[in-house]
């Protein structure tokens, strides 16, 4: 199994001590870097993976989100440092504990605890109240080479163009696993381009269990790790992707995706077909972000989702 998470090193602990933080400790690691708790209310994120191209832009996006009263906290960058070519952001600490471990680590049972769909609906409804901003439109989603909205005025058309670019990166990998791959890409692009205009709100794009923190009652207290697919767009995209990625690797993942897709369609008023279309677009856009040879679990998940849609 390939390890895609960045690793903690003691050298960073010593660095933070020299900066006046007497008891730093690593509290989390992901694809983009490691997070250290420095003092009460303050953490540092060491971007030892691929950092955002413009942390100043990310900082403005965080500020745009924070201007709106939400029932949970979101990230805020307080300072930015560069050390030996590695970027470090100093951010306010977000409270609560992850709602659940990632499904690749702790697969959920067949029956999702009621607190999970309840928390997801609360987060989706709240984020859909935050208008999309110019800074959000300037963000580049991971794996791409330009801002998602560049040259476009509508989110579905911007996403369709991304799908076509992403399919051209390593599409032969998917073509070997997904029957009728080229036709599927064309159908997806055409369907996206035909979607009607929608509200444009902030899109987190990676609402997996570790990125939603909650208190002991299951009430969301924080949403963190914006950046993987953060942009401005259709709130139905956020709902569809969340339904698909909430449980990606557990034994009941396909059932949970279908269950959450139906729930979000009913509760949030999104057509099931639109949610499924956005799920396919997400798989076509992200399939090669963790490896370029199809060796990782995310690629396998994308291929399986697209195979079901192509069938």
Automatic annotation (TrEMBL):
Pfam families: APH (PF01636). Transmembrane segments: none annotated. InterPro entries: Aminoglycoside_PTrfase (IPR002575), Kinase-like_dom_sf (IPR011009). Gene3D superfamilies: 3.90.1200.10. Signal peptide: none annotated. Residues 25-248 form the Aminoglycoside phosphotransferase domain. This is Phosphotransferase. It comes from Streptomyces litchfieldiae.
């Amino acid at each position: 199994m390939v390890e895609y998470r960045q690793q903690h090193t003691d050298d960073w602990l010593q660095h933070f001590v020299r900066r006046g933080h007497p008891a730093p400790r690593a509290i989390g690691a992901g694809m983009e870097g490691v997070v250290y708790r420095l003092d009460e209310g303050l953490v540092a994120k060491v971007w030892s993976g691929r950092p955002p191209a413009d942390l100043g832009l990310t900082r403005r996006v965080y500020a745009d989100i924070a201007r709106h009263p939400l029932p949970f906290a979101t990230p805020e960058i307080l300072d930015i440092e560069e050390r030996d070519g590695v970027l470090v952001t100093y951010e306010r600490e977000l409270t609560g504990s992850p709602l659940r471990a990632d499904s690749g680590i702790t697969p959920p049972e067949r029956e999702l605890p009621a607190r999970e769909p309840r928390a997801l609906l609360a987060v989706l409804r709240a984020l859909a109240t935050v208008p999309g901003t110019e800074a959000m439109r300037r963000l580049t989603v991971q794996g791409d080479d330009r801002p998602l909205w560049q040259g476009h005025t509508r989110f579905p058309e911007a996403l369709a163009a991304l799908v076509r670019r992403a399919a051209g990166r390593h599409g032969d990998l998917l073509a070997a696993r997904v029957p009728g791959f080229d036709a599927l890409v064309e159908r997806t692009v055409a369907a996206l381009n035909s979607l009607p205009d929608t509200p444009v709100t902030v899109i987190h794009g990676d609402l997996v269990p570790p990125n939603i923190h909650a208190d002991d009652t299951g009430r969301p207290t924080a949403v963190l790790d914006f950046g993987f697919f953060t942009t401005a767009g259709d709130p139905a995209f956020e709902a569809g992707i969340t339904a698909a990625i909430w449980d990606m690797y557990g034994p009941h993942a396909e059932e949970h995706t279908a269950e959450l897709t139906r729930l979000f369609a009913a509760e949030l008023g999104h057509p099931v077909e639109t949610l499924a279309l956005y799920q396919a677009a997400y798989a076509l856009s992200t399939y090669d972000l963790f490896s370029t040879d199809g060796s990782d679990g995310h690629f396998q998940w994308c291929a399986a989702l697209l195979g079901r849609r192509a069938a």
